[in-house]
Write a structure and sequence with these properties.
21% of the residues lie in helices and 38% in strands. The chain is of the alpha/beta class. It folds into two domains: 1-30, no CATH class; 36-218, Vaccinia Virus protein VP39 (Rossmann fold). The termini are far apart.
Length: 222
Amino acid sequence: MSKDYVSNCDKVDAARHCILYAANFIAGDYTFNLDDWYHLYPLALDGIEIKVAALPGVFSQQGLDKGTKVLLENLPCDYQGSLLDFGCGAGVISAFLAKKFPEVTPTGIDISALAIASTEKTLALNGIKGKAIASDGLSEVNEKYDHIVSNPPFHQGLNTHYAATELFLAESKKFLNRNGQLTVVANSFLKYLPIMSKSFGSAKLTANIKGFSIYHSIYNLR
């Protein structure tokens, strides 16, 4: 909390990875500017440089997370055409792949309004033509893509929650063009490979590094 807005800020309680504070609000006329709340940081990886903008509460707000780093350093294929970034967060995957592969047109989706705003800001900072859509899972997706790429979440609040990601893995082929490809990075203990194999007919483990696994499937219409 900023001392410009509150006084007598005290810690009241702490439990379940949460802290409760109480403070007195200082009355005044305040102007809210969203740009004041973005954390901006540079990202240089594999010869590609991008700028990232992330609002508070967005995944990897302070810097690149380990799983996405493993993915971007060990991509299982080249990318071109339309790309859907599921659970886009601050738009790191969208921006990086569009920079590395200029023929990529990214679309980010996330249930969080803060993530959508962050992805839009990240794409704009890097001069990338793309968009971000608020969506609960794949519910608001109305197009098909050449690629779907994701570091999917498995937490909902403080609790682990696998159902949304498992449904995404099972249903994602419906949103892929012919020979479209799904690329996912996840903690290695998560049993995503069997779900992808069942949905697509086959799936490959392409990397297993530092506790993270990359899975890849190609949608071949029968």
